[in-house]
Amino acid sequence: MSQATLESEEAAARSMDLLRFATAGSVDDGKSTLIGRLLYDTKSLFSDQLEAVEAVSAARGDEYTNLALLTDGLRAEREQGITIDVAYRYFATPRRKFIIADTPGHIQYTRNMVTGASTADLALILVDARKGLVEQSRRHAFLTSLLRVPHLVLCVNKMDLVDWDREVYEKIADEFTSFAAKLDAPDLTVIPISALEGDNIASRSEKSPWYEGPSLLHHLEHVHIASDRNLVDVRFPVQYVIRPQSTVVTDYRGYAGQVASGVLKPGDDVMVLPSGMTSKISAIDTADGPVDEAFPPMSVTVRLADEIDISRGDMICRPNNAPAVAQDVEAMVCWMDETAPLRVGAKYTIKHTTRTARAVVRGLQYRLDVNTLHRDETAPQLGLNEIGRVKLRTTIPLLADEYRRNRTTGGFILIDEATNRTVGAGMIIEAQ
Amino acid sequence: MSQTKPYRVSHLDALEAESIFVMREVMAEFERPVLLFSGGKDSIVMLRLAEKAFAPARIPFPVMHVDTGHNFPEVLEYRDTRVTELGLNLVVASVQEAIDSGTVRELPDGTRNRIQTPVLLAAVEKYRFDALFGGARRDEEKARAKERMFSFRDEFGQWDPKNQRPELWSLYNGRHHPGESIRVFPLSNWTELDVWHYIAKEEIALPSIYYAHDREVVERDGMFYAVNEFIVPRAGETVETRTVRYRTVGDASQTAAVLSDADTVEKVIDEVAATRITERGATRGDDKVSEAAMEDRKREGYF
């Protein structure tokens, strides 16, 4: 290979973007097989991993190589033959790098689906063509819309077992599309596949001449994600103040953080919350030198023209476009703790952007049945994997946006003060 | 950032931004962080990320080497040079000293991977470290694939895979009681290839053993081990000189080389992109002990 080709390949590899997607589906719908297939078809599966899986499969007397063993890495998972926890997998094509959050389908693991979906650009839901939509398919679609995952893909799997019957596929696609419409679900794509045989995964299959859409991999490579980010509302949560104690670098005071949304430029007028003080951005620094602009997800260090008191947990925004400064928050909360339920009157630690405070549960307006979307307004508490609309009051104000507008400044976690466990995940509906 | 595609970042820039964010979170929320530094490529990349996260200030935490006593000399030399260049405080937790003082016992097979754990935990206790940065990546191994970026460890340093804290958005929960600690893995989402692309992009110097060189080796269990004071040829094994390089740097008695002509970072990237064997599969004897060797070691407190 010539040096020039190598360099251009190098450059191409470096300029690829990153797509994070979460997979969901019910037990035995072939999710692990699909992931195994994606890894295999993109040459991301290594021969020693495959050999290890083949050896274990053979030792257990499996009739075929069980690709699920690739993703079920823990002893307990292998013993029970189910996926317990979110696992992350990686593969790449010449166009894109992918991070898969492989989330378990079992009903008791809704929290894992929520976890995987929280950072996903796309969610992939599998259904078994023979069974059609089941309760879990709807629940996963709902969770995807609740978590505001911008793109949704429904894979109708095991099409080989229904003889690639177009009508079967279309019935499922239509049913799901009309359900998704009720959810205010984002961009939806439906693809007929056979994960086991590899049809419509890496390339279009001849077995479905009636299907005119993309293969799954083609869709994953081309789905447009650049415009998903919020580039309008400037939100820069201050993470850490950099003040070198040095005789070489003197008088440096920079505010380090990751841009949550919007575009920051030197010269911009800014406001710092919660104080409301205003200033101008004098420079945006990185270790590689100053930059002309910063946007998500860049980690940078902002310097301001005026000496104002700013610390971790503060937020830099624009004077005419600020988040709410609020101690009263209404949010959808997914409860994640098996030991104790969320109760009205209970106090928790709340972590929101780079702010940590205490919060008391002021009320539970309703508990949502994630399968029927029925609201139970008489529910006294939220148990493990339950979701409800909750009113919180915090000890210090949060600098918050609605989650539907901003996933970073709209999301929070609740931590049990005694055990330090992460017990809840919240999505802000209203802050005042 | 190219002009034609505004407001987009490459995957490598996105990974870097995420890792820097994680390092700053730790610095903001913990009392005594430390970075585990072995002189291997992943911990070398971590040092670069730490430099970037806190520039123009110095890296605000010490580094710790859990030294098995079975080292490649090139790696120790690299470690000391780098530590001096960056003005870092280096803590060495020595397995040899622990053996000599009787706190741990040498295993019959002479391997020291497993007895690293109590030595690491003793150092954590001694210095009261509450956050330990490790260069582990989820693509390395199936037990790692399940681990959180902030991985809670109890007062015995144990990992409980069935009782991990959910990790949502970029909200990391580092809360812990005295004696407990958090292992932090800023490179969780990086792959071996990402690490090499980053080394090329940042022009990071590595210990020479990462690049092809001639070395006396013996072939054992299908892997090539360097002949040195820790690897003595057994009956029936022939010592031969081969052109090799190391994909991972670990305990010199456990880490094998791979046959390779890749003597530049570009050639290594080509090789890594084309390889069909994982780096641990190719080079680590210790992972082949059982199906869940890594999970079992991690439960005991290994990082």
Automatic annotation (TrEMBL), chain A:
Enzyme Commission code: 2.7.7.4
Presence of keyword Nucleotide-binding: yes
Entry superkingdom: Bacteria
Pfam families membership: GTP-eEF1A_C, GTP_EFTU
Pathway(s) where this gene product acts: Sulfur metabolism; hydrogen sulfide biosynthesis; sulfite from sulfate: step 1/3
Keyword annotations of the record: ATP-binding, GTP-binding, Nucleotide-binding, Nucleotidyltransferase, Transferase
Keyword tRNA-binding: no
Catalytically driven reaction(s): sulfate + ATP + H(+) = adenosine 5'-phosphosulfate + diphosphate
UniProt GO MF annotations: ATP binding; GTP binding; GTPase activity; sulfate adenylyltransferase (ATP) activity
Gene3D superfamilies for the chain: P-loop containing nucleotide triphosphate hydrolases (3.40.50.300), Translation factors (2.40.30.10)
GO biological process: hydrogen sulfide biosynthetic process; sulfate assimilation
Binding-site residues for GTP, renumbered to this chain: 25-32, 102-106, 157-160
Location of the Tr-type G domain: 16-229
InterPro entries: CysN_GTP-bd (IPR041757), CysN_II (IPR044138), CysN_NoDQ_III (IPR044139), G_TR_CS (IPR031157), GTP-eEF1A_C (IPR054696), P-loop_NTPase (IPR027417), SO4_adenylTrfase_lsu (IPR011779), T_Tr_GTP-bd_dom (IPR000795)
Family according to the record: Belongs to the TRAFAC class translation factor GTPase superfamily. Classic translation factor GTPase family. CysN/NodQ subfamily.
Subunit organization: Heterodimer composed of CysD, the smaller subunit, and CysN.
Database matches in HAMAP family: Sulf_adenylyltr_sub1
Chain's role: With CysD forms the ATP sulfurylase (ATPS) that catalyzes the adenylation of sulfate producing adenosine 5'-phosphosulfate (APS) and diphosphate, the first enzymatic step in sulfur assimilation pathway. APS synthesis involves the formation of a high-energy phosphoric-sulfuric acid anhydride bond driven by GTP hydrolysis by CysN coupled to ATP hydrolysis by CysD.
Protein name: Sulfate adenylyltransferase subunit 1
From TrEMBL, chain B:
Gene Ontology biological-process annotations: sulfate assimilation
Superkingdom: Bacteria
PANTHER family reported in the protein's UniProt record: SULFATE ADENYLYLTRANSFERASE SUBUNIT 2
Organism name: Actinoplanes friuliensis DSM 7358
Family membership noted in the UniProt record: Belongs to the PAPS reductase family. CysD subfamily.
Renumbered residue ranges of the record's region Disordered: 282-303
A Pfam family of this chain: PAPS_reduct
Stored InterPro entries: PAPS_reduct_dom, Rossmann-like_a/b/a_fold, SO4_adenylTrfase_ssu, Sulfate_adenylyltrnsfr_sub2
Keywords: ATP-binding, Nucleotide-binding, Nucleotidyltransferase, Transferase
Molecular function in Gene Ontology: ATP binding; sulfate adenylyltransferase (ATP) activity
Protein name listed in UniProt: Sulfate adenylyltransferase subunit 2
Top-tier EC class: transferase
Domain Phosphoadenosine phosphosulphate reductase: 33-256
EC number(s) per entry: 2.7.7.4
KW ATP-binding (keyword) present: yes
